[in-house]
């Protein structure tokens, strides 16, 4: 059985569509970064890949297809989650991270 892979955007990036001069971060990726930092023993069981902002995101396309480049994304044998609520639920179920409080 292979390990799950978590795709995140690089911590800071420029968006050419917004002029390319301002620097941004992804709020959902930062939420996940916080979980990884807070629970390193759980994060150690996941392969983490940080990818640049521009599309196509080749590593993500290779893993789950061109139509699913939204990040963050958790990928496992036979499935993936790349919508934040589903991803948080998958991290809790698959890796023992605490659940998000409603």
TrEMBL record:
Pfam families according to UniProt: DUF3088
Protein name: DUF3088 family protein
Organism: Sphingomonas gei
């Amino acid at each position: 059985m292979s390990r799950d892979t978590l795709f995140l955007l690089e911590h800071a990036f420029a968006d050419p569509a917004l002029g390319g001069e301002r620097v941004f971060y992804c709020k959902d990726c930062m939420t996940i970064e916080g979980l990884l930092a807070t629970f390193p023993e759980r994060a150690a069981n996941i392969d983490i890949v940080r990818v640049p902002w521009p599309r196509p995101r080749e590593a993500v396309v290779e893993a789950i297809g061109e139509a699913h480049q939204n990040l963050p994304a958790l990928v496992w044998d036979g499935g993936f989650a790349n919508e934040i609520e589903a991803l948080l639920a998958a991290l809790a179920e698959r890796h023992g991270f605490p659940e998000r409080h409603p």
